[in-house]
Amino acid sequence: MRLFSRFLLVFGALAGVLAVTLAAGLRQGLLALLGIGFGAVLQGARFGFTTGWRDFIERRDPQGLWAQMLLMVLAAALTLPLLAGSGGELVGAVAPLTISLVLGAFLFGAAMQLADGCGSGTLYKAGGGSPLSFVVLPTFAFGSFLGASHQPAWIELGGLPAVDLLAFGWPTALALTVAGCSLVAWLAGRVARNARGDAPPSPQAVAEQLVRTGTASFVAAARPAQSRWATRWWLGALLLAVLYLAHLVVAGQPWGIVYGMGVWGAKAVSALGWDLSGDAFWGVAPHAQRLVEPILADVTSVTNIGLIYGAIAASRWNGAPKFTAPSGRRLAAAAVAGLVMGYSARMAFGCNVGAYLGGIASASLHGWVWFALAFAGSIVGVRIRRRVGA
Amino acid sequence: MDKERLFRTGFAIFWLVALGLLVLDTASSSNIRVEPPPIALGSGQAASGGHCSGR
Lengths: 390, 55
What we know:
The complex is a heterodimer of chains A (390) and B (55).
Chain A: H1 2-24, H2 26-44, H3 49-59, H4 63-85, E1 97-98, H5 99-115, H6 119-127, H7 131-155, E2 159-160, H8 170-198, H9 203-213, H10 231-251, H11 258-271, H12 287-292, H13 299-316, H14 328-347, H15 352-361, H16 365-387
Antiparallel strand pairs in A: 1-2
Chain B: H1 3-28
């Protein structure tokens, strides 16, 4: 029975890719396939940007942060030489350092802890059957549409122009990116070591050490099990970096999430009678044209759809996923957080994928600003999360 | 109906409706064919897709 259900999942994936190829061309079919890969890896490795940060904020567990930094370094190493030599066929995620970036990233970081998922997290968890992310998805799409609509006004508040480190040559850009990621990883490890040194070992760690050594002199040498870097984290980073490279080569641009969700929101409100012809964002080229074109012709939309399917398939590969019902209060908070996330992601030129991963891997300074502000927002978000009983 | 079954039913209906809307959207704009070269790298064309970084 399980073999048959796996066959159906693979068959569904191939049929979907074929359908997209027939409807929108080979590039879109390839992007759908890559999207399925992203979803399967994110779900299979439980590669959560939100969880990685929360683990560090609450328990000083650096594994998620290390994995994210490894992903950034690998993605930058694989793509910066290509970006530099492509002559415009490939472009990076580069954005200005505006006031809207600062505000938007902070809000996004706080909201993603309440919604229990960022851009990619919401998609893969919704596909994986999480009731919370399922509720977040539509409000995220509406927020993304609305945020894009207001984005020109936010940008007018001012700021600094984009700083693209590729202007100094790709070796320098890569060296600076590697140095930045290494510094974050080292700081995270140092904080974690200090925290472990201050706290007594957990009962679980003590029991594990007892079994391992069979001696009573375990306390001094005891290292909690979490000090090992779980395979899922580094393997997830490795696979995501390869997929990120393939996406850039096929699409000509870095992997993104939020733009596509905004397109879905804009198409939905248009269908309900909202006239967007005079809209400051959706009413002007090239965005207005993308609302006329089919959703399957949009790069981020088709990758997102593939991602959701990949997560559905990965979560059901070994049978039906576990179900836990959140409280109504928690669902309501998540729905509001989804709206804020979608809106603020457009203020901040993207989410954890388009701005954080894409920005840093493209050697754009806005990626680092996004990281700093979103992480600060997450510290606040984790506190609010405790209050709403998550 | 317990909560889990209710959610799983809603989950299936939601994705079926989403799939239906996607098919409807594709069918209603079938006269528009935007088909760039299969691989951007080496295509000789500038990247033109929408991205959250502002394009």
